[in-house]
Automatic annotation (TrEMBL):
GO terms for molecular function: FMN binding; oxidoreductase activity, acting on the CH-CH group of donors, NAD or NADP as acceptor. Belongs to the NADH:flavin oxidoreductase/NADH oxidase family. Residues 5-326 form the NADH:flavin oxidoreductase/NADH oxidase N-terminal domain. CDD domains: OYE_like_FMN (cd02933). This is NADH:flavin oxidoreductase/NADH oxidase. One of its GO terms (cellular component) is cytosol. Residues 329-363, 427-474 are annotated as: Disordered. It comes from Streptomyces lincolnensis. The keyword DNA damage does not apply. Residues 337-346 have a biased composition (Pro residues). It comes from the Bacteria. Keywords: Oxidoreductase.
């Protein structure tokens, strides 16, 4: 049932032996100075069998801290502390990226080293209380960052990413979700700025894109991931999203040319938006379908909606989750892992537009099943050791089963069972003279090559994008 989970894949430069990864989980177990300890190393090493460990949110600067005893990654002591963690995970055979989390207004002066007022896009108080050394307290009103301070904050992310690599991490994940600083820039409920970081869609996504660009520039796009929580109704501080169906496609279109290792979505139930973002995102998509069981999450891989899934609470409660589930070891396990109950559906689900998420991969990629020979593809696979193997360029063909081969399909290459077709990049499409253009009932054109990295080409700049569809958002 969970076969698709156990096939190898890649996230940028990082080879993943399977597709069950660990979501970021704040543990508040660092020293008061934000230094990870042996305890953190033991905790992460225990979970090293996950395809990828995404660490707890880690502040890139003193301003970026919101909670007590969370780790930082901006001093030499932080780097030395994280080195213990990354060494322990690597020795246990795992892979680890450090999540860079700047909390913005979700903070309290009692919790930061400098005890100053929190910073945010605008001086808008978040709703709610947070834990401090003297108990629960209201989160106070932050002050608005100046335009110059925004540039300095982007640099903080850049330096923190470099520090994470120095500390031995395989990459970083930029936290752009859940109501923290990057998310606060995206919507007017938290961003009332009148400079080039507020107002229009372009302005509101600017900070997110600048941070991603700076981090990718510093450590390599293939070691950089980003997490977003589009349409998720549970946002800290009561951040409310406004033009969700316009903003997120706009943001993902702007991020796609950066060729980042992955996009990690904390999914809140808007299936239509999820499908749209899947179509727009060319590289590895990691999905956290909160509160659901493993079988439900694995279906997202079968359906091609996700390449990798993450689990939070289950990984917290079951360090050996992978061993419990993996076919080679599950039979020996005494108990099934705890699965948290599915929460009530937080938002009315809109019907997904064509093509549906369950459509075959070729249809979602806009490959016309009647003319598969009109497309060429690059096939990337993994060998049984999890190393990426480039199988070269091939015509997109009809397989013996009658199915059209496309990204996400499993293939056998050279008789090797573990080989998996990760990516088909539509390199070329030609319409025979006189043939009709795609019409109703035909799959829409594929948004863009599935991986710019594989082809060595970058997607075209935004105005020329053939896949931007008017009236898609709402
Ligand atoms: C204790 C706890 C701490 C969390 N800390 C973080 C965090 O630091 N960064 C983040 O992006 N998400 C964080 N999350 C959200 C999780 O990554 C995940 O999205 C959430 O738990 C829902 O997924 P699940 O059902 O797989 O647990 C946290 C969740 C929990 C329960």
């Amino acid at each position: 049932m969970l076969d698709s989970l156990w096939t190898p894949t890649v996230a940028g430069k990082i080879s993943l032996p399977h597709r069950l990864a660990m979501a970021p989980l704040t543990r508040s177990r660092a020293t008061p100075d934000g230094v990870p300890t042996e305890l953190n190393a033991e905790y992460y090493a225990q979970r090293a069998s996950h395809a990828l460990i995404i660490t707890e949110g880690t502040q890139p600067s003193a301003d970026g801290q919101g909670y007590v005893v969370t780790p930082g990654i901006y001093t030499d002591e932080h780097i030395a502390g994280w080195r213990k963690v990354t060494d322990a995970v690597h020795q246990a055979g795992g892979r680890i990226v450090i999540q860079l989390m700047h909390v913005g207004r979700i903070s309290h002066p009692d919790n930061t080293p400098h005890h100053r007022q929190a910073v945010a896009p605008s001086a808008i108080k978040p709703a709610g209380q947070m834990f401090t050394g003297s108990g629960m307290q209201e989160m106070p009103q932050p002050r608005a960052l100046s335009t110059e301070e925004i540039a300095a904050t982007v640099d903080d992310f850049r330096r923190a990413a470099a520090a994470a690599i120095t500390a031995g991490a395989d990459g970083v994940e930029i936290h752009g979700a859940n109501g923290y600083l990057i998310h606060q820039f995206l919507f007017p409920s938290t961003n009332q700025r009148t400079d080039r970081y507020g107002g229009s869609l372009d302005n509101r996504i600017r900070f997110a894109v600048e941070v991603a660009t700076a981090v990718a520039d510093e450590i390599g796009a293939d070691r950089t991931g980003i997490r977003l929580s589009p349409g998720n109704p549970f946002q800290l501080g009561d951040l409310t999203e406004h033009d969700t169906h316009e903003l997120y496609p706009h943001l993902v279109r702007a991020l796609a040319p950066l060729d980042l290792a992955y996009l990690h979505l904390a999914h809140g139930g808007d299936e239509e938006l999820l499908g749209t973002l899947r179509e727009l995102w060319p590289n590895t998509l990691i999905l956290n379908r909160a509160g659901t069981d493993i079988a439900t999450r694995a279906k997202d891989i079968d359906n091609g909606i996700a390449d990798v899934i993450t689990v939070g609470s289950m990984a917290l409660a079951n360090p050996d989750l992978v061993e419990r589930l993996h076919p080679s070891t599950a039979a020996a396990q005494p108990a099934t892992p705890t699965t948290p109950p599915t929460p009530p559906d937080p938002s009315p689900r809109r019907p997904r537009q064509s093509p549906p998420s369950g459509a075959p991969a070729y249809a979602r990629q806009g490959i016309d099943a009647e003319r598969p020979h009109a497309y060429r593809a690059r096939v990337l696979g993994c060998d049984p050791g999890g190393n990426v193997v480039d199988h070269g360029e091939h015509p997109v063909g009809v397989r013996a089963s009658g199915r059209v081969r496309a990204a996400g399909d499993l293939v056998e290459q050279g008789g090797r069972r573990a080989a998996v077709l990760r990516t088909v990049t539509v390199l070329h499409r030609e319409r025979p003279a006189g043939s009709a253009p795609s019409g109703p009932g035909r799959a829409p054109p594929h948004p863009q090559p599935r991986t710019a990295r594989a082809t060595g080409r970058r997607p075209p700049s935004r105005p020329d994008r053939p896949w931007s569809r008017k009236g898609r958002g709402r």
